[in-house]
């Protein structure tokens, strides 16, 4: 089997890339070891975060670092045995999170985020996936005035520099918006620009169906078998339907990208933040109207098609270590005090792995030492948000168009791999 392009990885980034290549007249084979959208793209909070132009930094305050060190929080958890292996990533992550460097990174990151909703809107319409989308933003609820004042001040700054829209809600406002939300919340911040997805896996599948309607093909295969094709022109990879050859190949393998890049001689420092979710039925006639974060506790409640999805923060561990969903247990205990959650709807907590670079920006662009090899991974918390914009950029570069954004800030060479 042959194609113009092979895309390895059928998460939201890979499927979006495959769509944009197919739209440009390329024959495309999309390859994944599992079904589309069944890994990291399956379990996110379902937000297209137009407001998220400042990526999540590593805490700089000594007091906060000490509190995280106690390892009893919801928003972060770590495996002590994994720490030696994670030190190179974490130390650079901390360095890049310095206030001045973090702001410079946010400036470089912003163009991707600024185009996130519009690029999704294009694919949502083409895929007929409007039923999965809500366009009413999301909320952060605050337990203390100090925390709310700090976040509102940041929102005001973002509104001034990046046209981010928000609404500050009083405690009474919050009670009207979410009558079944209890707890001693002093108010909330409503981010108005983001869109939310009621079934993230369903959205990926809708995009996949659209890709196939363009003539694209999805097959199961092993990305680690990637190697130059015979004669050194193009690439080949083994699939259940035989070997697939293509002139160009895009690595959109998320946290598994290094399994391939390493064999090709590249050395990226990419860490993993694992995350968990669990679905719940609402108790009685309770209704959760908004995607809501309990800001100072660090978990999320999202009213999705499959139930109310509770998502946790980051777990720092070996990518392939067994599940340790202690954050779900911690979060559920707190969540039940603020909203009437009913029974669990999943047999066990879901776990996924977010691929993170130390400078908090994805790796998007041509491989420095190989023709026809392209990288599209490292999106951390914003894989869903940035899938379509990344796919368009890669497809434009592969086909020789001038990318609609300057890609230099996200190029692989910044790591000197």
Tell me what the structure shows:
- The protein is α+β, with helices and mostly antiparallel strands and 417 residues long.
- It has a domain at 1-60 and 98-133 and 197-270 and 357-416: FAD/NAD(P)-binding domain, CATH 3.50.50.
- It is built from 11 helices and 21 strands.
- The chain has helices spanning 12-23, 62-69, 83-96, 99-114, 116-127, 145-162, 171-177, 200-213, 257-261, 326-335, 383-398; strands at 2-8, 28-32, 47-48, 76-78, 133-134, 138-142, 166-170, 187-191, 195-197, 217-228, 235-239, 242-251, 271-282, 292-294, 299-304, 307-311, 314-316, 341-344, 350-356, 363-366, 373-377.
- α1 packs parallel to α8 (200-213).
- The longest helix is centred in the middle third of the chain and has 18 residues, at 145-162.
- The protein is globular and about 70 Å long.
- The relative contact order is 0.21.
- The mean pLDDT is 96.
- One of its GO terms (molecular function) is oxidoreductase activity.
- Residues 4-396 form the FAD dependent oxidoreductase domain.
- InterPro entries: FAD-dep_OxRdtase, FAD/NAD-bd_sf.
Please name the CATH architecture of the domain at 1-60 and 98-133 and 197-270 and 357-416: 3-Layer(bba) Sandwich
The CATH first-level class of the domain at 1-60 and 98-133 and 197-270 and 357-416 comes to Alpha Beta
User: How many DSSP-defined strands?
Assistant: 21
CATH superfamily of the domain at 1-60 and 98-133 and 197-270 and 357-416: FAD/NAD(P)-binding domain
Rg: 21 Å
Biggest pleated sheet: 11 strands, mixed
Quote the distance from N terminus to C terminus: 31 Å
The chain-level mean pLDDT equals 96
Here the CATH topology of the domain at 1-60 and 98-133 and 197-270 and 357-416 equals FAD/NAD(P)-binding domain
Estimate the strand proportion. 25-35%
**pLDDT below 50 for ≥5 consecutive residues: which ranges?**
none
Percent helix, as a range, is 25-40%
Count of separate DSSP helical elements = 11
Q: Outline, from the CA principal axes?
A: globular
Category by helix and strand content: alpha+beta
Domain FAD dependent oxidoreductase: 4-396
InterPro entries: FAD-dep_OxRdtase, FAD/NAD-bd_sf
GO molecular function: oxidoreductase activity
Protein name: D-amino-acid dehydrogenase
């Amino acid at each position: 089997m042959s194609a113009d392009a092979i895309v390895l990885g059928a998460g939201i980034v890979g499927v979006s890339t495959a769509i944009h290549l197919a739209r440009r007249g390329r024959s495309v084979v999309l390859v994944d070891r599992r079904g589309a959208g069944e890994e990291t793209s399956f379990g996110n909070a379902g937000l297209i975060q137009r407001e998220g132009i400042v990526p999540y930094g590593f805490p700089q305050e000594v007091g906060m670092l000490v509190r995280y060190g106690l390892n009893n929080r919801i928003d972060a958890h770590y495996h002590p045995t994994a720490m030696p292996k994670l030190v190179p990533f974490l130390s650079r992550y901390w360095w890049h999170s310095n206030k001045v460097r973090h702001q410079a990174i946010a400036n470089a990151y912003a163009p991707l985020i600024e185009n996130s909703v519009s690029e999704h809107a294009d694919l949502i319409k083409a895929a007929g996936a409007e039923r999965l989308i809500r366009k009413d933003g999301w909320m952060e609820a605050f337990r203390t005035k100090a925390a709310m004042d700090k976040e509102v001040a940041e929102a005001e700054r973002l509104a001034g520099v990046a046209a981010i829209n928000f609404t500050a809600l009083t405690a009474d406002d919050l009670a009207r918006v979410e009558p079944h939300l209890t707890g001693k919340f002093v108010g909330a911040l409503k981010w108005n620009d983001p869109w939310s997805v009621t079934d993230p896996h369903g959205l990926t599948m809708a995009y996949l169906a659209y890709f196939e309607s363009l003539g694209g093909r999805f097959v199961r295969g092993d990305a680690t078998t990637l190697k130059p094709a015979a004669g050194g022109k193009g690439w080949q990879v083994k699939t259940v339907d035989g070997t697939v050859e293509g002139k160009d190949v895009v690595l959109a393998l998320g946290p598994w990208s290094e399994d391939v890049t390493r064999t090709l001689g590249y050395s990226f420092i990419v860490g993993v933040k694992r995350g968990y979710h669990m679905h719940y039925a609402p108790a009685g006639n309770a209704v959760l109207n908004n995607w809501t974060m309990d800001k100072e506790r660090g978990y999320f409640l999202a009213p999705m098609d499959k139930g109310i999805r509770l998502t946790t923060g980051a777990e720092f561990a070996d990518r392939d270590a067994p599940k340790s969903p202690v954050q779900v247990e911690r979060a559920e205990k707190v969540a039940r005090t603020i909203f009437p959650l009913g029974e669990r709807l999943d047999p066990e907590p879901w776990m996924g792995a977010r691929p993170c670079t130390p400078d908090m920006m994805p790796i998007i662009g041509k491989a420095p030492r190989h023709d026809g090899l392209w990288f599209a991974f490292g999106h951390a918390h914003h894989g869903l948000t940035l899938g379509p914009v990344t796919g368009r950029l890669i497809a434009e570069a592969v086909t020789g168009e001038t990318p609609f954004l300057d890609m230099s800030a996200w190029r692989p060479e910044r790591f000197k791999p």
